[in-house]
Amino acid sequence: MGNGKITSVQMMLLLYATVTPTAILLVPQATAQHAKQDMWLSPLWASVIGFLTIYVVVELHRLYPNKTLIEYSVDIAGTFFGKMIGLMFILVHIHGAGLVIRAYGEFIVGHFLFHTPLSFVMGTMVFVCAVAVRSGMEVLGWLAKIFVPLTVVWFVIIVLLLFPDMDGKNMLPVFEKGLWPSIKGSIVPQGWFSQCVLAAFFLPYLLDQRNGRKWGHIAVACIAVTLLITNVTALFVLGNVVEDFIYPVMTAARYISVAGFLEHVEVIIMAIWVAGAFLKIAVFYYAVVLSLAQWLRMDEYKPLVFAVGFFLFFVSIWSARDVMELGRFVGTANAFYIMFTDTAIPLLLLLMAKWRKRSVFRVTAAQGKKEHHDQTGEKGGQP
């Protein structure tokens, strides 16, 4: 495929950029609806799915070291079922990329570029991502090394500037109704953590494959800490009305005012969103075109890039009628079908692969014992 190589650290940054940009803006409101003042704990419960997903894809990579999920699905489940699993993965992530593009466009038009057509905002982002994806995996890895540290620094600055407006009493009473509300609130972010399955498309191309598991787990831990800080910040600033805002972090950022001079720092949120959304869309985009090329058994994925981008643009338009419908879907059904595709299906493949390997080992061992017995019998029967 001519993908090039990236390091495990770059893979970690790409996974971090795949989950956090949309999660920072959308997860607090969806979590607060169920967890209320215990929303700060929900990302920790949700991270279990992230660690499980990384474990599954790393184990599958260990069994099939030079193949991606699309390729070893056929080896494990057979040609027909393996192709169907690959097709389902492609379609789900086409839809996922369309949702991210639509969420990006709705946020930019709804808060900053009020008179700019939504289609223009989404189309320009798709084109830029297409250029990056066509440039190869190495370019995505270097872009992650540039953008992710910058966005993290700006995120930390936002949190520090909001510190004077925080009230720790907003999280009281803790565990008023036990642990169940926080666990229920973790269902939506579990869908975001399941997206770590995209590591399956980076592991075969790592320069230091021995460190893939470690940096995959570090990525999940960093995502969990980021979402924990995000939820705590939104809760401490907005209190029990977090669930009333579609973008709680954006609303909280408007509280920032330093000496009447530093205000309107929500522009920084836009900068974080644009950079993060670019990387997230690019990673989804790359996974889709690489998956489609491997599913079609093509030698090169680059001829598909712009055609797939054109299709993603229309999927983003068709994905929802407005931002309210988009928010309802992301906060309800989206998590379940993403977890099914990105965590449950790979887990099933791993169990099947382990069973097949064990069956082959047993058959080989039985044949070896039989040959040894035959040879011993022949020697014993000689005069």
TrEMBL record:
Its main location: membrane. It is a multi-pass membrane protein. It is found in: Membrane. GO terms for biological process: spore germination. The chain crosses the membrane at residues 42-60, 72-92, 112-133, 140-163, 183-206, 218-238, 267-292, 304-321, 333-353. Keywords: Germination, Membrane, Transmembrane, Transmembrane helix, Transport. Pfam families: Spore_permease. GO terms for cellular component: membrane. InterPro entries: Spore_GerAB (IPR004761). Belongs to the amino acid-polyamine-organocation (APC) superfamily. Spore germination protein (SGP) (TC 2.A.3.9) family. NCBIfam families: 2A0309. This is Spore germination protein.
